[in-house]
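quick one if you have a minute, typing this from the bus. below you get a single protein, a line of residues and a line of whole numbers that encode the local backbone shape. could you go over both lines and see whether the tokens make sense for that sequence. anything you notice is useful, everything is just below.
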Amino acid sequence: MSESDGDGDGGPGVGVDDESEVGDGDAVSRVDCHVKVLDDEVVARAEQAGLDAIVYAPHFTRLPEIRREAERYSTDDLLVVPAREVFTGPWYERKHVLAIGLEEPVPDFIPLETAMDEFERQDATVLAPHPEFANVSVTASDVHRYADRIDALEIFNPKHLPLHNRQAREIAESVDLPPFTSSYAHLPRTVGVSHTTFDVPIETEADLRAALEDGLARRIVYRNGLDRWATTAGELGHLAYENTWKKVDRLFLSGIEPTHPRHIAYDGRFEDVAVY
């Protein structure tokens, strides 16, 4: 391990071929705070990487199904924590927010303010993933506005270029928010490329929520070398696919999204705030 400035650009003090880390505290639990995929391969890769927990938050999937899958794939060695990454705002200005500990479903395609109010009502743990990235993220202004409701902000994401990671860290420091990282894995092979370590055992969802909310000592750990850049290229390629053909299929060919505010599953609670 070697100390890093957190931007993952291979600068001074950054390991080239193993892992780099930033933060304080001794590693006790290793957590990948955001993955989009979950199957036997993902579990095997997570366990091989020495992870103790992963947070599973697939796109456009309702909370009950996420919970079932998380329970199904949790093992004695790996805790799978269910979560929702809610897509707020219109399609041209989406703002993703990650919530752990929801008791009631929250749909996508609602205003950011509505989502944050709902998270607060349910006392959820709120994370800000990939801030200021493309058109799918909360902005620095959003972070400042909701700093008292956000429990941690992602300062390293494998999809990011070094500029994005530096910018994310500056935002976190500007409002004194605790950091986290994740693999943000949309592809199984990405799992384990980066993780957050805590100096307390993480054995339950409640343990993870407490660690995130209480600002406990943590380290941001990521691979830093050719393998990491191959991961970045693969994930960016997948992002391009998601925002071209897959989006066309979702918007025009597949009918109403399972997480759309007007879906019957939400009993009309959010129909009046649907952004499209």
Q: What stands out?
A: DSSP finds eight helices and eleven strands in the chain. Residues 25-273 form a domain with the TIM Barrel fold (CATH 3.20.20.140). The helical segments are 40-48, 63-73, 112-121, 140-145, 162-174, 205-213, 226-242, 245-253. Residues 226-242 form the longest helix (17 residues).
